[in-house]
Amino acid sequence: MTEEVDQQLEGEDDEAGADPVYLPTRRVAVVGEGINDIDAFKAASVSFALQDGSSYARNNASMVLQTNDFDSCMRAVMWGRNIYMNVQRFLQFQITANFSVLIVVIVSYITMTQSALNPVQLIYINLIMDIFGALALAATRPQTDLAQFAAGQGNIMTPYMYRQIFGVTIYMIAIMMVVMYCGKSIFDLDYKVSTQITDGDDPLAKAKMQHFTLIWNTFIFLQVFNLVNCRDVGPDKLHGCGGIQRNFLTWFIILIIVVVQATACKTFIGRILFEAAIVETRHFMITVVCGASCMLASTLFKLIPNRWIEGRMPSLDESKAIGGNSKLMSAYENQANAKAFNRKKTDIGDDQTPVDQDSQVSYEADDDFRAVR
After folding, report:
1. What is the distance between the alpha carbons of residues 25 and 172, in angstroms, rounded to a whole number?
2. Is the whole-model pTM more than 0.85?
3. Is 48 helix (H, G, I), strand (E, B) or coil?
4. By the 8 A CB rule, do 241 and 149 touch?
5. Contact assessment for residue 239 and residue 299, using Cβ atoms and an 8 Å cutoff
6. Which residue among 309, 336, 360 closes a domain?
7. For position 65, what pLDDT does the model report?
8. pLDDT tens, 66-79?
9. DSSP 8-state symbol, 348
10. In a domain, 373, yes or no
11. Among 288, 309, 330, where does a domain finish?
12. What burial class does residue 9 get, using C-beta atoms within 10 Å of its C-beta: 0-12 exposed, 13-18 middle, 19+ buried?
């Protein structure tokens, strides 16, 4: 839809003004209420019928407004574009979190004899990525700058999103590596690599559990602050805090995560639910600061000039499935389309047509049944 009202047309001029030929580079919207607007509805990219319009106009319109106010049309477009942007926000958050947790788990398992994130903690991280993150980002309300947002043009994954995904993922992994391998010095903990946290009352095992708890807490707060970063997926804004004060659900979800982390790291409940140890307040705040630094890193990545990004980031053909032409998928398709079994055929005579072996067995069984009768 055009970002502003170009002109007001009447009568037969509606169809000419709505024809995309007259505006080849723009999408055209038409608002009408009568039968004489039907041709313009068909020629336009999208059409809106007013509430008091004729039934024929409402049936042929793309959308029927609940009021007779033209501002309702603009609000409908704004909310529609906001839904599209919310999908982009969630994709950026989800991909970044998945890449980060994958690298952290693999590296920690190889170098520290066991994963720094236990299964319960991974389930909780997945809960944040899939449910809490989706709710918080879907609750983002539209802002006035959406009028300049071109929704549905090109891929849903933009070069600016790839810039943030790659940059923030690398930064998160770097922070996690520092906490994992320098954490013993930062938090003044002493244990051996071969120590297992399941060793019970062993002081070394307790120290290692505290370290793993701080690693987990750092990763959680990295995701919390990255959640705020992902509220903006455009090329211009330097942070995602714009309008956050109007999103109660986003604040509520962030508060829930913070309360859960404080409870898990400062009370005995953390040992029961997450197999976490009680840590010092100073150590807890260090992990929070490490997580908050993600916002600064995201801002620095957005300072990269857009001309360096455009045309240099990877691009996927979103109309096709990833790996659809690979040998693995070809083998899967051949196997899926293959028959489960082929019936064997036998020749009864030289001049007779072949008969299925299963059918011949069925005929013999029928003859035996008739003989018994």
Report:
1. 41
2. no
3. strand
4. no
5. yes
6. 309
7. 78
8. 777 777 777 777 78
9. S
10. no
11. 309
12. middle
What domain range is 146 assigned to? 82-309
Using an 8 Å Cβ cutoff, are 155 and 172 in contact? Answer: no
120-149 pLDDT per residue, tens: 999 999 999 989 988 988 888 777 666 666
Q: Which residues pair with 64 in a beta bridge?
A: 49
Residues 98 and 28 in one domain: no
Task: Please give the structure tokens belonging to residue 210.
Answer: 């505290």
In a shared domain, residues 285 and 207: yes
CATH code at 42?
A: 3.40.50.1000
CA distance 322 to 15: 41
Q: For residue 63, what are the β-bridge partners?
A: 48
Q: Assess if residue 345 is contained within a domain.
A: no
Query: How does DSSP classify residue 356?
Result: E
Secondary structure of residue 168 in the 3-state scheme: helix
- As a whole number of angstroms, the distance between CA 28 and CA 43 comes to 9
CA distance 287 to 360: 76
**Locus of tokens 């072949």:** 354
Could you tell me if residue 3 is inside a domain?
no
Nearest to 74 by CA among 33, 37, 31: 31
Question: 267 lies in a domain?
Answer: yes
